[in-house]
């Protein structure tokens, strides 16, 4: 087991020579150092390259690599990162290489550093950048790790049996669509498809009327496993590179009609939005917390059980969903926060997701994406989907100025945010994961 | 609409200067010309390249391309094919480029051709070759297009409601796992996982005891569509490169416990086997047939309906499943054929699969793989899975020499075969899609 211990890079008193890294409320202090794929706005596609966030700047890793400032693991990781246009090559090197690169970047960005390994000329303002999906995603798997979400949404689809008998035993997951994963800021069309109105004798065809969000975290796989070789629970996190925010947009009317017996398909695969910034497992180490399975629930089967997973398998990541309507924007109003919760409420841990996924021999590859599933907390204001927040569409959300929402309307913009804070540790954040609904294509 | 018409390459009297292309019962006469990714046995990974089957030989397209024998579309397609180690680049060029290359290869291989564009030195014996998965598969989607299979298997999982209400309206599909798609000849371990024995209060963990096959065709996407842009029904086949055989191995005990509410996951994603040879849409043109929806069934919604789809949307592809047990092999016995059927029985056509998949704006990419779902025909001996053939495990299959099978045992080898024959057309085939079950990894 390779558990990342706290080290100098987590020191909450550390400061950077990049002044904005000390700005009040920044997501990107020197203790974070997340990765993204970026280019300066307007550069051509060949210029997509890797960057690391520091304050309101991006460290251009290709520029740093041109000077080859380091040796050993850090140098190998830097060269792999700089040679690829996505995070895959760096991810494939595994957690020790990522850790070495983090340490080298931390030392180079620290207040008092010589500004030779990383120089001010290597910085690109985030305000001048645009982003792409961080990795070439081979496969995308979405889990269902919040028992609160599973119960809330199960109540809509199966009032007689909201929580199915397998839920407390199996970390339920299913395969999603990799090709339609888009990056924050990219808008998408409202999907068209079949739905079955209550009481109707035949389905209708048209634009979805129950377009929803799902507040999730995305988990990028680092080192893969060979086909046929399961990953034991205490090695699972060695296969995780880092986390991002993920919005699994969902058309509930399409979903209700299509999902049996093989699961959601067109109701989900029209778009999935991820944040550009991937926060590494090492950056998240200070915010680990105990994983708790209520005593009156079934306890996990042995392959999903370990002392480490019990003691520190969960992460206290604060999550928030903000909604902006066209009317709010034309009135100059701020976004309305419609949900606040934490990843710590998940019923299954990140390590349990990885181990369950591979227990049958299924192979994960660098850059593969896992979604946690909608991370609803125990109370209704902690629900991460509109179908929960509005009790299946029966109780509209009240927005400022008398506006209401049941499901998303055209022009609505949803922004997910995530951050970690804890006494004795720095506050780090995930940036934003935003998307806007365009009208359906005419049919 | 670009419908491939019959042309000189379909002439059943055409012969090749490669003598084995005229052998009785060959899958690969000059009218077929399917593509694979191959190397000579023992060559290193950098040598994976594209080949075209002719008789018992493979035309090495990289060797042909080195002489740049053609002009225009055929030359462009050949250079794209030769520069890639998988079929993706050729697939991305679309159906007209593939058609031009087919015509050029046909002319070069025809009896009496000058043997300058393709020479005997460009041929590699199939007996000396090994194969890889034909494309880098971005996403793999599995459909469920046989109503006979859906009814038979629904009876096992939901005796009270075998065929769900959406089946006759929606071409049901779900996302599968791309990373574990393997090529014919690769064996795989019996998967381990959770199942819920009847009457038990808690799940058990161990090797699957109900390991099954699924006889399917695989559909490789050629030219893709942009995110947000649906593919109309009469353009759908322009986005298909060709077909292969596909065995969607399934662990029924894992499936029964895990599949609700999000669909099959670990019960399917441990291995999916495809044949190395991809038969192009143009080669399949002579075997088109009318698509028939029984009058007393719901007729398709308009987006899934067209005159062309009615007249010629189905394909009469003969399919067969052969089983070989260790005891049969040690006795020198031939494989036992356990199923014979045809793709013409499918409830939804290939074009309907593509159009439904994209109607919500989902983007398909070159090299993506669609499975048809298990292609069971109307009678029980036409069923493409053991769970159907054995009535859910209650009626064992009788094999030669008194041996029986309910589900697969370790060492069992399953081979799928497919071919087309029709009066006035050549007989063409798909080769073999074989896999062997290895014992489960010890736990």
TrEMBL record, chains A, B:
Residues 142-434 form the Fumarylacetoacetase-like C-terminal domain. Keywords: Calcium, Hydrolase, Magnesium, Metal-binding, Phenylalanine catabolism, Tyrosine catabolism. The keyword Calcium applies. Signal peptide: none annotated. Pathway: Amino-acid degradation; L-phenylalanine degradation; acetoacetate and fumarate from L-phenylalanine: step 6/6. It comes from the Bacteria. Its cofactor is Mg(2+); Ca(2+). Residues 31-134 form the Fumarylacetoacetase N-terminal domain. It holds the Pfam family FAA_hydrolase. The keyword Metal-binding applies. Transmembrane segments: none annotated. SUPFAM superfamilies: FAH, Fumarylacetoacetate hydrolase, FAH, N-terminal domain. Its EC number is 3.7.1.2. InterPro entries: Fumarylacetoacetase, Fumarylacetoacetase-like_C, Fumarylacetoacetase_C_sf, Fumarylacetoacetase_N, Fumarylacetoacetase_N_sf. This is fumarylacetoacetase. It comes from Acidovorax lacteus. The lineage of its organism: Bacteria, Pseudomonadati, Pseudomonadota, Betaproteobacteria, Burkholderiales.
């Amino acid at each position: 087991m390779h558990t990342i211990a706290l080290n100098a890079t987590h020191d909450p008193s550390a400061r950077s020579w990049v002044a904005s890294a000390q700005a009040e409320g920044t997501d990107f202090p020197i203790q974070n150092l997340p990765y993204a794929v970026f280019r300066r706005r307007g550069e051509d596609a060949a210029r997509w390259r890797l960057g690391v966030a520091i304050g309101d700047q991006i460290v251009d890793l290709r520029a740093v690599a041109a000077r080859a400032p380091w040796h050993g693991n850090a140098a190998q990781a830097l060269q792999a990162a700089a040679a690829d246009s996505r995070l895959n090559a760096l991810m494939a090197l595994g957690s020790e290489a990522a850790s070495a690169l983090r340490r080298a970047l931390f030392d180079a960005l620290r207040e008092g550093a010589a500004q030779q390994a990383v120089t001010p000329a290597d910085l690109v303002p985030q305000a001048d950048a645009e982003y792409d999906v961080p990795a070439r995603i081979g496969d995308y798997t979405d889990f269902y790790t919040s028992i609160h979400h599973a119960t809330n949404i199960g109540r809509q689809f199966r009032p007689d049996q909201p929580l199915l008998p397998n839920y407390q035993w199996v970390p339920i997951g299913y395969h999603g669509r990799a090709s339609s994963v888009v990056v924050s800021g990219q808008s998408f069309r409202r999907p068209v498809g079949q739905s079955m109105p209550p009481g109707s004798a035949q389905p209708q065809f048209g634009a979805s009327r129950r377009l929803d969000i799902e507040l999730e975290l995305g988990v990028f796989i680092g080192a893969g496993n060979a086909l046929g070789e399961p990953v034991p629970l205490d090695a699972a996190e060695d296969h995780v590179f880092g986390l991002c925010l993920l919005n699994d947009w969902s058309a509930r009317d399409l979903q209700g009609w299509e999902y049996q017996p093989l699961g959601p398909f067109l109701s989900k695969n029209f778009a999935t939005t991820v944040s550009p910034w991937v926060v590494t497992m090492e950056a998240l180490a200070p915010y680990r917390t105990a994983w708790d399975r209520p005593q009156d629930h079934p306890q996990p089967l042995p392959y999903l059980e370990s002392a480490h997973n019990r003691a520190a398998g969960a992460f206290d990541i604060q999550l928030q969903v903000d909604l902006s309507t066209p009317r709010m924007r034309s009135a100059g109003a701020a976004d309305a926060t419609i949900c606040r919760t934490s990843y710590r409420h998940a019923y299954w841990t990140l390590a349990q997701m990885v181990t369950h996924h591979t227990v049958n021999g299924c192979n994960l590859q660098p850059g593969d994406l896992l979604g946690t599933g909608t991370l609803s907390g125990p109370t209704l204001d902690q629900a991460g989907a509109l179908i929960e927040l509005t009790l299946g569409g029966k109780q509209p959300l009240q927005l400022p100025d008398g506006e209401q929402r049941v499901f998303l309307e055209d022009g609505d913009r949803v922004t997910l945010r995530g951050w970690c804070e804890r006494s004795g540790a720095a506050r780090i954040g995930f940036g934003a994961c935003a998307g806007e609904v365009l009208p359906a294509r005419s049919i």
